[in-house]
């Protein structure tokens, strides 16, 4: 009959091995802790929804460059990205490091809608001016 202490030591040894494997896996990831100045703001990392403010814990990511923001990917046009720099941040996360990112939330949806109207108006004006130019060219010739 084997001693119960031997079984206990064997179980503790295997638990130690399992815990060590989990810790070594977590060392290959970086973490992003996102904060903002408003409640219930949705957060996106690389276009993937990760939760709303406040997040319970930092988000694990692969080390490297990541895009963190509160603007949904379907609203991220090139001009929106250029004009709403506070809504999207490109950050570098190192392995085994926690990076804290603070985003200033200023009702981006209203800004995005206003910018889309502005871009639409610009394109309509451009087409109209081009049409007037063509009409003038045909009248002159």
From TrEMBL:
Keywords, sorted A to Z: Membrane, Transmembrane, Transmembrane helix
Transmembrane intervals: 6-22, 121-140
Q: What is this protein called?
A: PEGA domain-containing protein
What species is this protein from? Answer: marine metagenome
């Amino acid at each position: 009959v084997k001693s119960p202490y031997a079984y206990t030591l064997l179980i503790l040894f295997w638990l130690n091995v399992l815990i060590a494997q989990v810790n070594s896996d977590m060392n290959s990831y970086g973490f992003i802790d996102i904060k903002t100045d408003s409640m219930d703001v949705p957060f996106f990392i690389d276009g993937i929804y990760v939760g709303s403010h406040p997040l319970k814990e930092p988000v694990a990511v692969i080390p490297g460059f990541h895009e963190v923001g509160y603007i949904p990917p379907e609203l991220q046009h090139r001009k929106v990205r250029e004009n709403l720099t506070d809504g999207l941040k490109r950050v570098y996360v190192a392995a085994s490091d926690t990076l804290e990112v603070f985003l200033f939330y200023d009702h981006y949806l209203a800004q995005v809608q206003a910018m889309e109207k502005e871009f639409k108006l610009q394109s309509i004006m451009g087409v109209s001016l081009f049409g007037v130019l063509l009409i003038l060219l045909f009248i002159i010739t």
